[in-house]
Design a protein that fits this description.
Helix 2 crosses helix 3. Helices cover 35% and strands 22% of the residues. The chain contains six helices and ten strands. The strands form two sheets. Strands 1, 2, 3, 5 and 6 form a five-stranded antiparallel sheet that branches. The chain is of the alpha/beta class.
């Protein structure tokens, strides 16, 4: 599902990173641990195709995304990758449901709105579909962010520090939701975090 080999990244006039090889099969869950400054978010942005590596390959569905041009990469990301950022990054001027539909629309993927509503319903926020993101509580925004990442059935779900700011109960609920949504879509789930509470939840893990 996702296979990463020889990945490195160098910031201009800044730190450089060499990352371990990663292989994550369909439906498999991987925890990437590391303290601040170890390159966790950089790795996630590389896997999402948001920045390009200095060297190495990132294969998703047998496509090396490092070889795609920007237009093809944007389309591929919209079709195959779901991303959950530390901050939700909603478009505040449009409704929750329109935020969910935006990525597949821009990537040219035809996804019925009814599927987005079904995912919102599974996460108990379907009643918020027509509201603007700013009117939602932090917990509701988080659930909607998960829905946005998974409703188009991505090949890979990437989550950046999804629990670091949460208490134990809410952290467990968020991980439960991520695992459940990944199972329902058969997606590989990769979580990058410094939250050591998650170590016992995942059999497969690497430390940067």
């Amino acid at each position: 599902m996702i296979d990463v080999r020889g990945l490195t990244f160098q910031y201009p006039s800044g730190p450089g990173f060499t990352f371990p090889d990663i292989a994550c099969a369909p439906g498999e869950h991987l925890l990437v641990l590391g303290q601040s400054g170890k390159g966790k978010t950089t790795l996630l942005h590389l896997l999402a195709g948001m920045i390009r590596p200095t060297a190495g390959s990132i294969r998703i569905q047998n496509t090396d995304i490092t070889q795609l041009d920007n237009r093809a990469l944007d389309k591929f990301r919209g079709q195959h990758i779901g991303i959950i950022f530390q901050t939700a990054h909603f478009v505040d001027s449009i409704s929750v449901i329109d935020n969910l539909m935006l990525s597949p629309f821009l990537s040219g993927k035809k996804t019925p709105q009814s599927e987005a509503l079904q995912v919102l319903d599974r996460l108990n926020v379907a009643h918020k579909a027509g509201q603007k993101p700013a009117s939602l509580s932090v917990g509701e925004q988080q659930r909607c962010a998960i829905a946005r990442a998974v409703f188009h059935k991505p090949t890979v779900i990437l989550a950046d520090e999804p629990t670091s700011a949460l208490d134990d109960k809410n952290a467990e609920q968020v991980i439960d939701m991520l695992e459940e949504q990944a199972r329902q879509t058969g997606a590989a789930l990769i979580i990058v975090t410094h939250d050591k509470r998650l170590k016992d939840r995942f059999q497969k893990q690497i430390t940067l």
